[in-house]
Specification:
Elements lengths: L6 E2 L22 E4 L2 E6 L14 H19 L3 E10 L9 E11 L2 E10 L4 E11 L11 H7 L12
Antiparallel strand pairs: 1-2, 2-3, 3-5, 4-7, 5-6, 6-7
The protein binds decanoyl-CoA (MFK).
Decanoyl-CoA binds next to helix 1, strand 4 and strand 7.
Length: 165
């Protein structure tokens, strides 16, 4: 991603399915912040194949879900997906980069309503997504993960580009 106005954001975890650099089955999303939005350029490949030559809808959904997880850096809250809806507007060819942009549409109490758009470098928007995330605290994760990993999620440099807000 060459845009100079973008601020790189750290992965959720090295093994995260969406953005973890150490997950061999992952999408390896590199995500940046652009004002109050987050963006990633994803190129689906043969690991993400659905129909011949096309990306699997689940892979597209996973990319959107993980990108929504980066809006949390902007909102400065910890939250998890309660509902995710993807509109598959057109087939997504393998091997062609698509930029996904996501942001907060509105907040109501613990409910974060998020939206995303996926557009090819040819200018064609091929999918959009909406999600409801619900704000949680560390008790949500504590029974399931290593204490150090849970703590790390809550001490990420989420506020390092606060000047942009
Ligand atoms: C997070 C760090 C980064 C990690 C990587 C990011 C990866 C991308 C994100 C994910 O993949 S997260 C993993 C997938 N998601 C989950 O595993 C979540 C599983 N679900 C839960 O644990 C609970 O359902 C949840 C914590 C989301 C909510 O349970 P709670 O008991 O805390 O809340 P509740 O059910 O009372 O709902 C909270 C609010 O949302 C509202 N709500 C719930 N479902 C709704 C719905 N369908 N539509 C509208 N509102 C809804 C509900 O009315 C309520 O409103 P109020 O706060 O105003 O009372």
């Amino acid at each position: 991603m060459a845009d100079s106005t973008l601020t790189s954001l750290p992965p959720h975890h090295p093994q995260c399915l969406g953005c973890g650099p150490d997950n061999p089955a992952g999408l390896h999303l590199a995500v940046s912040r652009d004002g109050d939005s987050v963006v990633t350029d994803v190129t689906f490949d043969k690991r993400h194949r659905g129909a011949p030559g096309l990306a699997h809808g689940g892979a597209i959904s996973a990319a959107c879900d993980d990108l929504f997880g980066f809006v949390l850096y902007v909102v400065e809250e910890m939250a998890v997906t309660r509902r995710l809806t993807v509109d598959y507007l057109a087939p997504v060819p393998l091997g062609q980069p698509h930029r996904i942009t996501a942001g907060l549409q509105r907040r109501h109490g613990r409910r974060l309503h998020l939206e995303a758009t996926g557009t090819g470098h040819d200018g064609i928007t091929r999918f959009t997504a909406e999600a409801l995330f619900v704000v949680v605290d560390h008790h949500h994760f504590a029974p399931h993960g290593l204490e150090a990993d849970v703590q790390a999620m809550f001490t990420r440099p989420q506020r390092r580009d606060r000047k942009d807000r």
